[in-house]
Amino acid sequence: MTTTSPQVNPVSPVNPGNPVNPGNPVLRTPPASPAAAAAYFSASLAFHADVSDVAAALADARATGGDPGFVVLDSRSTASWDQGHVPGAVHLPTALIAEQAEQLLDKDVPVVTYCWGPGCNGATRAALALAELGFRVKEMLGGFEYWVREGFAYETWEGPAQQTADPLTAPVDAEDCGC
């Protein structure tokens, strides 16, 4: 009679207590410890802002006549800006940040950068350039693409515009997604 011992998955050397599961693509690299995950996700929120949150803060400021506490910066080209941009945004292409940011922006006011969308890292490059100049900065996740896809009003060289929200990015009959 042969006996087999139960198969035990090896333990991650990075996260002791988290078994490595080489047959499962999700768990091949085990999740971080809760403390490491909390630190990472907390940091992520310090670096990123959601399109819906930016839109809500701007709408609240407009409704109350107040200040949202940040400035939105479009880091794309002039042709892109003319095609459409967030209302009230400052236009400053990434290539011009080093020479113009200190004339256009106040270092005491946080800056939220955006570019085309998730397939573009122009907002990341703009945020880096601003941070290197001493600005406090966040990147707007989703960029202009998700601003439009979520149904928020925008401006073009021809005037105001707005599209119906894409049901894959925004709730159809609700004000927010509840995230």
Structure description:
This protein is α/β, with parallel strands linked by helices and 179 residues long. Helices cover 34% and strands 13% of the residues. It has 6 helices and 7 strands. The protein has a 5-stranded parallel sheet with strand order 1-5-4-2-3. Strands 6-7 form a two-stranded antiparallel sheet. β4, α5 and β5 form a beta-alpha-beta unit. The longest helix is centred in the first third of the chain and has 14 residues, at 34-47.
Short description:
The chain is α/β, with parallel strands linked by helices and 179 residues long.
Which short descriptors sum up this protein?
single chain; 179 residues; alpha/beta; five-stranded parallel β-sheet; two-stranded antiparallel ribbon; 7 strands
Query: Roughly what percent helix?
Result: 25-40%
Give the overall shape, derived from the CA principal axes: globular
Order of helices and strands: HEHEHEHEHEHEE
**Strand-pairing-aware structural class:** alpha/beta
End-to-end CA span:
56 Å
Low-confidence stretches: none
Please indicate the percent range of residues in DSSP E strands (runs of 2 or more): 5-15%
List the helices and strands and how they pair.
Layout: H1 34-47, E1 48-50, H2 51-64, E2 71-74, H3 78-83, E3 90-91, H4 97-104, E4 111-114, H5 122-132, E5 137-141, H6 143-149, E6 154-156, E7 159-161
Parallel strand pairs: 1-5, 2-3, 2-4, 4-5
Antiparallel strand pairs: 6-7
